[in-house]
Prior knowledge:
29% of the residues lie in helices and 19% in strands. Strand 3 and strand 4 form a beta hairpin. The N and C termini lie far apart (69 Å). The longest helix is centred in the middle third of the chain and has 21 residues. It is an alpha/beta fold. 57% of the residues are buried. The site of beta-D-glucopyranose has 11 residues, from loops.
Amino acid sequence: MKKSITLILCGFLMEMNISAQNAPQLRTDNIDEVMKAMTLEEKATLLVGGANNFFGDAVVGSSAERVPGAAGTTAAIPRLGIPSTILTDGPAGVRINPTRKGDSKTYYATGFPIGTAIASTWNTALAEEIGHAIGKEVKEYHCDVILGPGMNLHRNPLCGRNFEYYSEDPVVTGKIAAAYVKGVQAEGAGTSIKHFAVNSQETKRTSVDERVSQRAARELYLKGFEIAVRESQPWTVMSSYNIINGQFAQGSHDLLTKILRDDWGFQGIVMTDWIGTRDGLPTTTEVQAGNDLMEPGQPKQVKEIVEGVNSGVLSIADVDRNVRRMLEYIVKTPTFKQYPANDTPDLNAHSAITRQVANEGIVLLKNSGNTLPFSASINTVSLFGISSYEFMSGGTGSGCVHTPYVVDMVRGLENAGIQTTKELTEIYRKYAEFAKLKFEADRDPAKWFQRSEFGQQKYPEMEVSARCVMKEAKQAAAAIITIGRQAGEGIDRDINTEFCLTEQERQMIMDVSNYFHQEGKPVIVIINSGSVVETASWKNYADAIIVAWQPGEEGGNSLADILTGKANPSGKLTMTWPLAATDHPSTRNFPDINMPIYNYSESSRVSGYHFTNHEEDIYVGYRYFDTFGKEVSYPFGFGLSYTTFEYSKPAVTIKGEEIEVSVSVKNTGSRAGKEAVQVYVTAPKGTLEKPKKELKAFGKTRELQPGESETLKMYLQRRDLASFDESQSAWVVDEGTYQFLIAASAADIRCSAPLKVSGMTEKTSNALAPKTEIKVLRLPKMN
Ligand code: BGC
């Protein structure tokens, strides 16, 4: 093995020498010429990530010498003036090492709000603004592409990476992602929309077969990606680790060529996700399928491509096609354009953006008797919950950013002029120190997800005695309890301890509520989590409930803005909050919580779990709860404000292919505020069964002063009304009258208007057909 690699290397170097003097140097206008000058080995090298240096396997996070901590690189071919480009995680900011050996300078990057928080703003302009800021940091830190946005669907609340993703709905996902991509790319840096596709669980992510109908795939799991590709042309797409209907996504010609390029017109490159190669999937198949770049890159992959061409297994035309795309990508990059990076992005300006976006993404779930915003008399609060002190600005794994600081709740409140009770704050601070030390001591580096570079950790709650709570209730004007959850790459969430509150947390809420209410003082619960938690069993104990998500480094300041009314909440949920996790039909087919979790070294040895049947089919999230009339704790699209809005004069018109929905929104309350408006559509009865209603468009008003109105106009295309008909491999719009429901949430329709639409059929390729029959959920037949 070593010998043959050495032989290839020698041949390669010799050839380089022979042609070095008159080799063309890559320019934007001489790609043909450069390709003619490339040897087969050079072509193969370019298709394999730059960690391939012929001297050993890549290690994620250490492959980029130019930028320590960046996830990967593309290979350089100096003879032809082809530089190495740098790929960095993503998506909540630039993930690079904050310090470097022998260098006193620091390289912290802004910790922006996580994906779910950005989506909860329902404000594409803000997503684009974040994109601009991230694009600038990518360039200033000598990188070329941010590995994001994460676009997998929240199929189930237990997925460990939901925090990186946007929603259970593909329209929210696609529109927010497209805006983020536009922002980054307008700065001249690249994006990688990921993980393409059907990667809505972490358990066995490198080997699980996601068995899904073509209809659910097209309408849900692929739809967000389709919107992002059509609307923003990301430079790159990252193919996921998993199998879809029997075929690895990374080696699926159906997915990466027929759907992505032929049906949607994608122009950029596809790169693989990172962990090594897939069992039984030849690199040659990946090249043929349309995977242009193998990341992080291994020497054996270069060899395999060269041998594949020499033996006729792989055509040189396929190699050339991918090489051309690689070169077209490279000439766009900041590195190729010699961007004068200075390693000094404007972190102050970007922290202001995180605060603004977090403020709009925070969701107010409950506000009994106008508990919030705080009146001026609330100037001292008791702060419960370890996460108030060890506030979580983001998730773990590759989605964790090394932020320069995190504003916790104590600091955030203090900055807003609210003190926390001294004794309790001191006890918690001491406990937090202890919990961190204990965590460090117990940390098992063999478990990769416990390694420190995988980011912020969640520490166990501190026991708070009833006596202590009683004392606090006498001193403070209100209680704030922060319930924190941490999750990330590689592990799904546990129902009992992560989706549900622990007994200790529930007890804390009950005790605090009991003693503070005895004193006539309010209790506010803040949920500092990237994903949904159970609320039904305890929500009656709280006067106000705020979902902070993981709002980025300015978290405490953003929460103080909301608590004091400096900012009026306007975020809304982008996923259903069910009564129980088992209410989601997908939980039946979500990996069992007692299954061995994914582990790098054990992945191929863990047996007993090989596929996920998507029996719920198109009934994901509100599409299920709505259509089947199932009660929820908080519906999709829900979020309160400190003011009220009235919707009127709805109008829906069609001109050519474009449908315009307009509605007048008036602020009828006494505070300035913004309103996120949702447009759902109920289709006429056609041949296919459909969900009761589906989100088709959304918009957000500007900040409206009391009494002020705005006419909001939202747009969609006629083809957006289509369902996917597997029998014809086509998107089909049934002719008839569609009801447009203009709503404040999926459960709060404010007004509606009908529209007569003529039918249409748009043929697509017949791709990703399931190999086994899946028994899918359908509505019971009515007599
Ligand atoms: C993750 C990707 C990430 C990549 C590089 C993978 O394990 O799934 O989201 O971009 O690593 O760090």
